[in-house]
Amino acid sequence: MGNKQTIFTAQQLDAYQDNPFRQRIAEVFSEDGEGNMTLDDFLDMFSVLSEMAPRDLKAYYAFKIYDFNNDDFICKSDLEKTLNKLTRNELTEDEVKMVCEKVIDEADLDNDGRLSLEDFQHMINRAPDFLSTFHIRI
Question: How far apart are the C-alpha atoms of 48 and 64, rounded to whole Å?
Answer without folding.
Answer: 12
